[in-house]
What does this fold into?
Amino acid sequence: MRVLVTGGCGFVGSAVVRYAAERGDQILNLDRRRKANPVHSLASVAGRDGYARIEADISDRSLMRAVFREFKPDAVIHLAGGAEEDAARLFDSEVSGAFAILEASRAHYEKLSVEDRARFRFVHAIRAEADDPGTPTPVEAARFTAGALIDSWSRAYGMPVVTCVAGEVFGPYQADTAFLPRLIASILSGRPFVLPNGGETVRDWLPVRDFAVGLVRAAEAAPPQTRFDFSVGAERRDIDVADALCVMLDARSPLPGGAFWGSMVSVEGDRSRASPGPMLDAMEAEHDLGWRAAGFHSGLDRMLAWAIGRYALQQAATPIHAVAAE
It folds into this structure.
């Protein structure tokens, strides 16, 4: 499969690129990050036959049309976005970018043969909303607008779009500001970590590797104009996830003196303010797409192994139990 991935240097995007490369797909990664700056999450695929990366602003409509004419993708997996605080830049990265990719996809799709049209898919990912999402942030508002544009524009022109929904995606190379990386970094460094809202916030945890597999499966097997939830059934409270993580650490690197890693995690705040989180059902993804997930504990183990290795490099091989015992 020839797949064009936007935002392929990001957290989810790079996981999709790595998985597609493992399968032997032809991949074009469009990302605005400067090519001069290394992307550690893509070190395993850089220079591989069948993989190419273009430093590009996807809101450039002329450039996107040229890219599609040259690459001729069988599928598009659109994951590019922005986190800018400036409203104009946020609009460009989310809404204008989505429109430019849509229009380039539409122009490409209309020129395809009947057989190739039947195979082409435009896949995009959205985050599941909580039952009571509250007031959206500017980033959330921009992403909602871009998602609505993709949905309505594709239906207006009959372009085969697939929407993939996920909750709390986690895994290696995740941003340091995300919940799990902050938790792991804190306790490995011997700093207590406090869970807000009494640790009762519930999230639907999904390993990024499992989500990447689902996105690629959607690109090659999903019926047009469909929506799939991706979940491994891991609706867990923050305190439950922290406990599971600490148990894994106890097994991997026991603390001296019979101490437990979980002693560095505590809770505070009003439990009634905790979000119940979205509850997703992956039955259709499993049945219709043949999606098979490795699961929550496999993903958590993979995340922890990556984090420990990263921490060891940062600390110049200082034993983590010695740091935690200080």
In short: The first helix runs from residue 11 to 23. The radius of gyration is 21 Å.
